[in-house]
Amino acid sequence: xxxxxxxxxxxxxxxxxxxxxxxxxxxxxxxxxxxxxxxxxxxxxxxxxxxxxxxxxxxxxxxxxxxxxxxxxxxxxxxxxxxxxxxxxxxxxxxxxxxxxxxxxxxxxxxxxxxxxxxxxxxxxxxxxxxxxxxxxxxxxxxxxxxxxxxxxxxxxxxxxxxxxxxxxxxxxxxxxxxxxxxxxxxxxxxxxxxxxxxxxxxxxxxxxxxxxxxxxxxxxxxxxxxxxxxxxxxxxxxxxxxxx
Length: 245
Description:
Helices cover 37% and strands 23% of the residues. It contains five helices and 13 strands. The protein is elongated and about 60 Å long. Residues 135-241 form the SCP domain.
């Protein structure tokens, strides 16, 4: 009887060990599967990326898209000065060559003329355009008996991202899905495209009842503007509003 009890106890221990080992294996498999899923999820970060399949550079727009078959002015180091780069139909940046359309780019991919890198001021030009746009909205509010809104650098940064996204999908729905209204303190958004100047963008919104109502809401306190011109010369305008200080 004792032997049977011992045997049953030993069998029970072995079964428990098997169960524990199985649990460990199962948890390990689940963890591995979870890590695989996590590593498979796309994580988008805007900026220059070095290729894995090819030793070349491409530019991630931060929304699952990238530049291809285009020239693009880019301020990669955020110094307010943009250089011009050529991307082929696969999205790879041309470097240290003469492009198919006859322009020279250096070892860093920047367009050069007589060995001089061609540049364009980004922050100053865009900043002036956006300030004019916001200024026109505030003048309109004051003339309508409303308080002017405070400019928000945070909202303007988001608006700049939205302007670039609108070059991919001109919609209040973002290219990756969802709405900007779920981000930070954004409470309202107005969009325009191919208006050429801040005045024309403002006038287009003024003529639209829905957009006009947003510009004249008395409960907004802050706003920010975004502006972007794509490689085809199409311009995109965004203003974001917030109730919050």
